[in-house]
Amino acid sequence: MGLRSRIPLSCYILLTGEDLLAIAADQPFRFPATFTFVVRAFSVLDGIGKGLDPRFDITEIAKPYALELLRFREAGVEVLLKDLQRRWDRQSRAFYNLFRQADRVEKLAEIIQQLEQGDLKLRVRTLESERAFQRVAAVQKTLGAAVAVGSLMNLATILYLNSIRVPAIAAFVICAFFSFQVLIGIVKVKKLDQQERLITGTA
C-alpha cells in the first residue's frame, strides 16, 4: 500500500491496464452481441444530451436506476414485499375500475357526441406554427417601424428646409424613437432565428 501511494496516478492506471490485459490474455471472455448495441445507444444519448446542454451527464440520470438494481440484489425479502405490494395495489385499482368502466364509456360517448354537434371544440397547439407566427409578427412590426422612420425622416427634412423648425425637431425625435424600435426588432428576429436553429438542430 505504501509503494502504491508513491506511484503517480498515470503510472498506476497504466499498470492496472497491463494487469487487465494479462488477465484477458490468460482467460479470454466475450461480451454478448446485444451489449454493443446498448453501449452505442448510451453513447448516442450522451452525445445528443451534451450537444443540447454541455452540463448533461448521463451517469447522474442512470444512478437512481443503478441504485435500485443494487438494492434489489441486496435487500432481497424487503424488495420482494414491496413488489408484491405494488402488484396488489394495481390489482385493487383494476378491480375498482371494473365497476366504473361503464360510467367512463358513457362519459366518453357524451364527449364524442358534443364534438360531433359542435358544442365542444378542441384546440391543438403546434409549437412550430406558434414560433413561425411569432417571428412573422416581429418582422412585420420591424418593417412598420422602418417605414415610419423613412416617412418621418422625409417629413422632418422637408420641414427643416422650409424653416419650420419646431415640427421638424418633433419629427426627428419621433423618427429616433422608431429607429430604436427597428434596432430592437432586428435583435429580436435574430434571437428568434437562433432559437429556431437550436431547436431544429441546424445551429
UniProtKB/TrEMBL annotation:
**Protein known as:** Uncharacterized protein
UniProt keyword annotations, A-Z = Membrane, Transmembrane, Transmembrane helix
InterPro entries per record:
UbiB_kinase
**Species, as recorded:** Rhizophora mucronata
Biological processes annotated in GO: membrane lipid biosynthetic process; regulation of response to reactive oxygen species
Q: Which residues cross the membrane?
A: 143-162, 168-187
Q: Which GO terms describe its cellular component?
A: membrane
Coiled-coil regions, chain positions: none
Top-rank taxon, per record: Eukaryota
Q: What family, per the record?
A: Belongs to the protein kinase superfamily. ADCK protein kinase family.
